[in-house]
Amino acid sequence: MRLPLSPFEVRAYGVAVTGGPDCNATQTSINGAGVVRSGAELPISVPLPLEPEAHRLALDGLAQRPDEAVSLAFTLPFCAAHCLCCDRDILAAQPEEVIGDYVDGLIEETRRLAERLGTRREVLQLNLGGGSASELEEVQVSRLVHAVRDAWHLPADAEMSIDCDPRRVGWMQMQLLRSLGFTHVNFGVLDLDPRVQQAIGRRHSAALIDDVCEVARSCDIEYVNLGLMIGLPHQNLASWRDTLRRVVAMAPDRISLQCYRHQPRLSPGQYAIDVDALPEPNECLELMRLTAEVLRGAGYCWLGSDQFVLETDQLAIAQSQGRLRRSLVSYTTAPPSAMLAQGVAAVGEIDGHVFSNTESMAAWRQAVRAGRSPVARAQPLTPWRARVRQAQQQLQCQLEVPQALLRDGLQPVYARLARHVQSGWIQVQDDRLVVTEAGRLALPQLIAELDELPLAEPGPRPGV
User: Fold this and answer.
1) 52: left (phi over 0), alpha (psi -120 to 50) or beta
2) 15-69 pLDDT, tens digit each
3) What is the spatial distance between Cα 30 and Cα 38, in angstroms, rounded to a whole number?
4) Which domains, ranges and CATH numbers included, belong to the chain?
């Protein structure tokens, strides 16, 4: 899958070391000429994460329901280069040996999960993302998918999606992905303006994106999603309108929208971003309004605040019928299921409890080699938090919260949302709270505010 990066060739610098308990690791480095060389064997020992009790109990509970389907999400923390605007913990330009060892770990992790939960359990969704699957060789992608088929039951109609770098794929790669069962491909675009691309260190032409979309369609990929980003340096209404016009001409099935978050303390690469060139918050809102106006005019249906799909799309139909759901990965029509996330820093969910793998690559690989769970953190679900999540689902999928739901112990949710009536974001009706057109642009903020509510249901006030 690893075609030369266009228009620049990326070479790796630094050291990648893998290892586990009771074994030695070979230090592999890439020199400036791009030549792989092996150094001395170095023992590695890192603290292994302790599996949270909540995770063990959740898996035990799921194992007792052998007929219940699951969804799988594999985190791939690799990219050809680290874009300056990216806030993810990405490993750029890694050698084949490092990526191959990581794929081995994913295969081992999913096999052990299947053994723990019962093999041949049906899979509703399979996602490969987090970075770019384009960094994997064809044989590595094939090995991973075949390992999933060996460990689980992956039916022909499973929803299989994959994230790819449009600069790193071609016809043969698309053919392979389709033959493996992938029907959804996500291509990161961000912006088509050359000045914006230069500012974030990500260069590609509009013609290249157009060609990749055509290649994917020619290989019978059912859904092509283009990912855009608002709030990047040098973006303005004129340049963004031109980007939207060219994206619409490419006729993608879906368009996803992200907002740039400038937090260089957490993502040091963002220190290279010129903060004086970033659009102001009110300018970002205008860019959002323009996006909705242009894409709606082109026949796209707006889901939540960050997804646009054609009006004939199954997601648009599901929204009109009240069946749309938001998973940890994306909007979906699949029924609720446990999301088993595998890989470093992967985040999954079982029965509403959220679990996160260790963020340390060495600890994750060592835990998998030792046959232990790499889950390091758990966010148990309380009955109160479950009702809050239900309200958030209603906001994200239907842009409203029924009054009946708010009466079910969710008065703090009602109060938090009702604060935005004066700002025009929320409208109070007889039987529901409704997100207005203006509030839709601020939907991520509304969802985040509900996350700030306590995990447990607030008790009565003293004297009440």
Assistant:
1) beta
2) 333 333 333 333 333 333 333 333 333 445 678 878 999 999 999 999 999 999 9
3) 9
4) 50-338 (3.80.30.20), 383-451 (1.10.10.920)
Contact indicator for 462, 404 with CB cutoff of 8 Å: no
Q: Which CA distances in Å does 309 have to 242, 249, 254?
A: 20, 14, 4
In the predicted model, what is the mean pLDDT of residues 160-168? 96
CA gap 93, 96 in Å, rounded: 9
The C-alpha atoms of residue 375 and residue 3 are separated, in whole angstroms, by 33
Looking at residue 3, its pLDDT comes to: 52
Amino acid at 380: P
R_g of the chain computed on alpha carbons: 23
Which phi and psi (to 5°) does residue 304 adopt?
60, -130
Record the pTM: 0.87
The CB density around residue 459, as the number of other CB atoms within 10 Å, is 8
Label residue 455 by pLDDT band (50, 70, 90).
low
pLDDT in the model for residue 408: 65
Residue 77, CB half-sphere, CA atoms under 13 Å: how many? 18
d(CA 217, CA 381): 41
Separation between Cα atoms, residue 435 and residue 401, nearest integer Å? 9
Token representation of residue 349: 């969910």
